[in-house]
Amino acid sequence: MSFKYAMKGFYEWMFENTTSQQLMKHMNQQKVLHLIYNAGSISRVELAYKTGLTQQTITNIVNRMLQEKVVIEGLPTTSGRS
After folding, report:
1. For a tag site, which of 8, 38, 49, 61 has the least CB within 10 Å?
2. How far is CA 39 from CA 16, 32, 36, 42, 47, in A?
């Protein structure tokens, strides 16, 4: 069995055993995590803007990742704007 075939089987299983809401939740979390990883440091407001998700959704995702110790929260930084 090739890796490609195994992944195809995994995704078919995932779609069959996951509700669309759960799948969307997972995809949104992955999108946020990807942005955090690439930016190194990014605000929740920036995450909402870049993902198109609401600030409440971003807060929920970030709080979940903080609770699971996937991310850590740093001190707020100033943007240099007045």
Report:
1. 38
2. 34, 11, 5, 6, 10
